[in-house]
Amino acid sequence: MTQEELDALMSGDIEELESLPEDNSSDDLVNDSEEFEEEESDESSEADSDKPLGYSTDTAHHWPLPATKENKMVHQLDDVTKESEEKASEIFDLIESVSNDLMEKEENLKSIIEVLRSNIKLFTTLNIKFPEVSAFEEQLHKNTLALEETKETLEALQSSGESIMSVMDIMQYQDIHRQKIERVINVMRALSNYMNSLFEGRIDDDKRVSSAQHIVGDTHNELASNEDIEALLAQFGS
User: Fold this and answer.
1) How many Å apart are CA 98 and CA 105, to the nearest integer?
2) Among candidate residues 79, 77, 84, 85, the one with its CA nearest the CA of residue 187
3) How many Å apart are CA 176 and CA 125, to the nearest integer?
4) What gap in Å lies between CA 215 and CA 74, rounded to an integer?
5) Can you tell me the distance from the alpha carbon of 192 to that of 74, in angstroms, rounded to the nearest whole number?
């Protein structure tokens, strides 16, 4: 049905409607169908042309990702801060456990050093009084070597303890980084709330009048379908 037939039908002038030339034959329907298919192909080509210049499957990673759960920025940043804090807490617990073990071993080595020094003092006295007894001289030599090795081990443990303290100091920067990320999240959320408030309307979207599909100035030749006519007549009848 053409626009003229629709206007005649709405005005109630049936005679004028009957007097209109019957040009819409089956050939016209075929032509309309062909034109519709051509328009669909044109629209598909236009949809392809709407893609940014240089967009392809190879360059898709350069363009923004869809707003899915995996790609939402604040969600990802929240996950980063949460996981970072949990892992940092686990690392601190491990470091503290190792540090406590080192301190305990240091105390044990200090006790061993005292025993070795006592042995060295004893065997030195015995070696002086009984120089002919080679066992005293041999034990004095062994205890002296053991004392030197124990001292080196103690120094290594103390150096490791200092390194662990340095690691704990460095790990403090992780907490600073987490706070920076949280500050970025707060700014992003504030901007999001501001934009939502800026575009907020007084009428709910489901209560709004539907937008017109065709308005004056549109460059198309689409005809009203039978479904559109029946919906329009039902609206006037109500």
Assistant:
1) 11
2) 77
3) 61
4) 40
5) 11
Q: What is the pTM of this model?
A: 0.51
Dihedral angle, C-alpha 26, 31, 36, 37, nearest 10 °: 110
Largest CA-CA distance found in the chain, in angstroms, rounded: 148
Instruction: Yes or no: say if 185 and 78 are a contact pair by the CB < 8 Å rule.
Output: yes
Chain centroid to Cα 89, Å, comes to 21
Q: Which of 8-22, 61-75, 175-189, 223-237 has the highest mean pLDDT?
A: 175-189
Distances (CA, A) of 164 to 91, 103, 167, 169, 214: 11, 12, 5, 9, 73
**138-146: Cβ within 8 A, 24+ apart:** 143/116, 143/119, 144/120, 146/116
Long-range contacts of 155-164 (CB under 8 A, 24+ apart): 157/102, 157/105, 157/106, 157/109, 158/106, 160/102, 161/99, 161/102, 161/103, 161/106, 164/95, 164/98, 164/99, 164/102
C-alpha span between 86 and 230 (Å, rounded): 63
Residue with tokens 């206007």: 7
Structure tokens that stand for 112 in this block: 């061993």
- CA-closest candidate to residue 143, choices 107, 112, 108, 109: 112
Identify the band that residue 58 occupies on the pLDDT scale cut at 50, 70 and 90.
confident
- Tell me what percent of the chain is helix, strand and coil, each rounded to the nearest 5: 75, 0, 25
